[in-house]
């Protein structure tokens, strides 16, 4: 084998190392992005006035007075719900599974059921990594006004997985969640291994990709410049 034929292999190994290092660095940069739910929380009824608020606030919030004010009941293992998110880019159907993370699953279903997510945007877009939403302040600093307990990560991260965003502080999950865009993102997420997986997109990844392709501010925050809102979020039986 001559020297020229060796070059592609060397280049591929270098590219793989660069990609791996890039995703690890990206995860580090996203310490606030994938863990952007403020430990102090933000009341769900008032998008404006969140700590550090500087982005656009979601419009047409329709959360009801019955939204939880503390950690809701877990979704029991073996139970599933389908959460459908309608956006201008299309629909996203997420199958939520209580067997994955009962507390996170129950929390997501409770917030979706009461209309908490209606009008909230996907505020952060990281191509080939994740899209993130669920913050009533619209800028990555807010939550539902309470936090939920941590749970072990018992499933594998891959394209389409839906998991909770959090800070590095224990029990700092609230309402923010992210959808994984690429199988290549798994390595960095596994190294952190703290983002509770509670479901998976079972229909509408083309919509997720369309949202991810919208303009963003670039690293380190990757703020959405034209945020796509969750016009309505509904829950049904599978």
Please characterize this protein's 3D structure:
Helix content is 23%, strand content 22%. The chain has helices at residues 3-29, 102-113, 186-192, 205-212, and strands spanning 80-87, 90-97, 121-126, 130-133, 161-164, 177-180, 197-203, 223-229, 232-236. Strands 8-3-4-6-5-7-2-1-9 form a nine-stranded antiparallel beta sheet. Residues 1-29 and 31-60 have low confidence and may be disordered.
Walk me through the topology:
Elements lengths: L2 H27 L50 E8 L2 E8 L4 H12 L7 E6 L3 E4 L27 E4 L12 E4 L5 H7 L4 E7 L1 H8 L10 E7 L2 E5 L2
Poorly predicted spans: 1-29, 31-60
Oligomer: single chain
What is the N-to-C order of secondary-structure elements (H for helix, E for strand)? HEEHEEEEHEHEE
Structural class: alpha+beta
Helix content: 10-25%
What's the β-strand tally? 9
Strand order of the largest sheet: 8-3-4-6-5-7-2-1-9
Range of strand content:
15-25%
Give a quick set of tags describing it:
238 residues, alpha+beta, 9 strands, disordered N terminus
Please sum up the structure shown:
Helix content is 23%, strand content 22%.
